[in-house]
Amino acid sequence: MGAFGTTRHYRGPDNARMLLRRLLGPHGLKPCPPRGRSRFEAARHRLACSLLALATGSSLAQGLPPEVEAALARAKLPRDALSVWVADTDGRAPPRLSHRAGAPVNPASVAKLATTFAGLELLGPAFTWSTPVYVDGAVQGGTLHGNLYIRGQGDPKLVAERLWLLLRRVQGLGIRSISGDIVLDRSAFETPAADPGAFDGEPLRPYNAAPDALLLNFKALAMTFTPQGGQAQVHVEPAMAGLQVPAAVPLSPGECGDWRGGLKADFGDPARIRLAGAYPASCGERTWPVAYADPRSYSARAVAGAWQQMGGALAGQVREGRVPAALAPVFEIQSPALAEVVRDINKFSNNVMAQQLFLTLSLQRNGVGTFEGSREVLRRWWLERIGPGEAPVFVNGSGLSREERVTAQGLGRLLQVAWASPLMPDLAASLPLAGVDGTMRRARGKGTGLAHLKTGSLRDVSGMAGYVHGAGGKRYVLVAIANHPQAQAARPAIEALVEWVARDL
């Protein structure tokens, strides 16, 4: 029996069955595409394959591979926990494997595929975000007699070193002291106030950072511990005005182990980080990224801290406000190109960067970035580019949501459309390479180095989607998403599927 079964397995309406029999003749449906036939017969056979898939509501692809079934059995997971869609990248033949591919599932971070490909198409791979700076007042004797304004426009990668360069440009204008205020304009995005712990009760996890028109350093602190003498020196980046941090902590003997727990850290006070424990000397140098306890004041503290660290003086304060309409920027700094930002988003599954891009879709279309506006932009784009029918439910563009829904077939079709796009190299290169980098760097097995796959993981969700390079040189689209209370246990089954595809099915 061929990979797509035979017509005697078909249970559709009689008229569809009769049409298929007339197209196929007496010998039934064989694997597509047929060999050794005339051009007319081959075209007739391909049409029959497509009609059969449409008539049954899904592909008549074979069941799950035995190694995938075995992995699910070992994990004690039902087959219905997994949705799978595997097809050729060119999209000309029916899918090679389809299992629950039409069922809406939560994709977790696999949803970033839609955000990043839509961003590349709607904005262009060379798109950059600008952050303009305004001076309101005269500069005399190294002092700005007035206010300095910084207007955020959604730059996802305004990290500590680029903030330093921005302020260095300010000093390049001859400004060493500001008699007024530094005003931060964050009005480009209109988003509801967010509780960073609302999603999973982990407010100090950097992945829970909320988007911001003036997003600085992902609203995160990087604490580096360096053993020196009998202590571990503590260094925090970026410098935060008004934040007290211990200069050092004692070293402890023994294995590295749970070194973070051993520090007995308390981050609850926005003005002070407490470290009541010790740091294992065997750990060497380690860095601990944490979200700041008061994310709303993060940008003001970071700007004030960087300005002070550079020797700048400020008579007023760093505060929020809007740029006066009559002012023109004295300079602007540009973000890296979108193609580079997309690599960061997908390789490392950066949630807040994905949300920045998502909000930028409506900012560019409507003049202000809102979640509702971006959902509409993405919905229209999906219907135009991916196909008619019910569009997926995308909430914030990152997949960090319990409400997002999409089908494995829909994501697979997106990957096929992307493969045929001139922007395919930008999207494909952004996906983690199995066993090599990004969120797939620890993957092992025969699929190592043969698959570019976006991963997704939440409580109750585990998935992968992307491109697999077969042993014979053929490339395939693969989507596999598990939704189940024990979804993380499905990872070996998904990895077995990747290996099966890499062996050319």
Describe this structure in words.
This protein has three domains: 7-56, no CATH class; 66-126 and 338-502, Beta-lactamase; 129-335, D-tyrosyl-trna(Tyr) Deacylase, Chain: A, CATH 3.50.80.20. It is 30% helix and 22% strand. The chain is built from 13 helices and 19 strands. The strands form four sheets. Strands 3, 4, 5, 6, 14, 15 and 16 form a seven-stranded mixed beta sheet that branches. A five-stranded antiparallel beta sheet has the order 2-1-19-18-17, sandwiched between helices. The protein has a five-stranded mixed beta sheet with strand order 12-9-8-7-13. A hairpin with an 8-residue loop joins strand 1 (82-88) and strand 2 (97-99).
CATH topology of the largest domain: Beta-lactamase
The CATH superfamily name of the largest domain is DD-peptidase/beta-lactamase superfamily
Terminal-residue CA separation: 15 Å
Oligomer: single chain
Number of helices: 13
Q: What overall form do the CA principal axes indicate?
A: globular
Mean pLDDT: 89
Strand content: 15-25%
Top-tier CATH class of the largest domain? Alpha Beta
- Provide the structure class: alpha/beta
Q: In the CATH classification, which architecture of the largest domain applies? A: 3-Layer(aba) Sandwich
**Helical content, roughly?**
25-40%
Number of domains: 3
